[in-house]
Amino acid sequence: MTQGTGRCRAHTNIALIKYWGKQDEQLFLPMNSSLSLTLNAFYTDTKVTLDQALKQDVFLLNHQKQSAEQTLKISNFLDLFRHKYSISAKICVESINHVPTAAGLASSASAFAALAGAINEAARLNIGLQELSTFARRGSGSATRSIFGGFVEWQKGTCSTDSFAIPLDDAAWDIGMLIVVVNHREKIISSRQGMKRTVETSPFYPAWVKSSEKDLVEMKKAIVTKDFSKIGELAESSALKMHATMLSAQPPFTYFEPDSIRVIQRVQELRKKGLECYLTMDAGPNVKILCRLTDMDKLKQELSTEFSQDQMILSGVGSGIHSLSENEWLLSKKGLKS
């Protein structure tokens, strides 16, 4: 195909059983399987246009034409589709990222999931969602999970074709997440750099992988029985164990900031007082708090004594990728939610 347009939205996901470390850097195969919750508060909208008249790929992010280096990353991802499906056209990619970029809020997950969905639509490839998740994975590991909504498992697999995501539960049962944004700035140490250092140097890392496998089994049981307390306990434990591997790397590093610690302590205090809430953190300083939707307003009120309204974002459960109409795309470009 030489012409075509596709538009797709993908939401971010937050891992509850963490993925941290690759067994294959080129294929983005993880060391352990993981499990996430897709959120509706953050998402990426992407439009892909196949245009034979273009001499090279074009990448615009939030209306800004990106550098040759950033465009090359996108081109390499698009080549996965071009090579397999004999697409000759150059491609214009326009993305509107309704997520703070590179701040530990999974912007790359929604970005590459949306891009995979948009190229699938633009080139009329009709790739099934499970297979599409294997393509999304090649852009960002966690993007494989953003193909689906609710609770999602990323099965680590043994090769590129069997490392994919599967939906587990739509999570439409009184579950939400409150995000405390400690810092919007781009991270000093990227997730990829952090993973590589941890895998290669942390003496705790092998135990982390073994522990994660056990946690995943327990988490899936808790989801089946809708045991919110167990889900929260496992999620908090998984996050803190992951961050412990970073502190034991050489040289050690951390994504925690002073305000991250303040949120962690506050969550644990509130839980002791009877407000059931549990924290999780990815490769960034921002803290995500798993709670019941029915408790979210109360949780926000409790945290508002120390953190501003602008720092707190409330989210329900997000859906999987879906196509956008032209009108929805235009609204997104204007910064309006559709």
UniProtKB/TrEMBL annotation:
Origin species, per record, is Vagococcus entomophilus
Please give the InterPro entries that the UniProt record associates with this protein.
GHMP_kinase_C_sf (IPR036554), Mev_decarb (IPR005935), Mev_diP_decarb (IPR029765), MVD-like_N (IPR053859), Mvd1_C (IPR041431), Ribosomal_Su5_D2-typ_SF (IPR020568), Ribsml_uS5_D2-typ_fold_subgr (IPR014721)
Pfam families, per database record: MDD_C, MVD-like_N
Superkingdom of this entry's organism? Bacteria
Q: Which UniProt keywords apply?
A: ATP-binding, Lipid biosynthesis, Lipid metabolism, Lyase, Nucleotide-binding
**EC number(s)?**
4.1.1.33
Establish whether keyword Kinase is in the entry.
no
Per its UniProt record, what PANTHER family does this chain match? DIPHOSPHOMEVALONATE DECARBOXYLASE (PTHR10977)
Limits of the Mvd1 C-terminal domain? 177-311
Any GO BP annotation = isopentenyl diphosphate biosynthetic process, mevalonate pathway
Q: Which residues form the Diphosphomevalonate decarboxylase-like N-terminal domain?
A: 10-165
Q: Which family does it belong to?
A: Belongs to the diphosphomevalonate decarboxylase family.
Q: Which GO terms describe its molecular function?
A: ATP binding; diphosphomevalonate decarboxylase activity
Protein name (database record): diphosphomevalonate decarboxylase
One GO cellular component assignment for this chain's record is: cytosol
Q: Is Metal-binding a UniProt keyword of this protein?
A: no
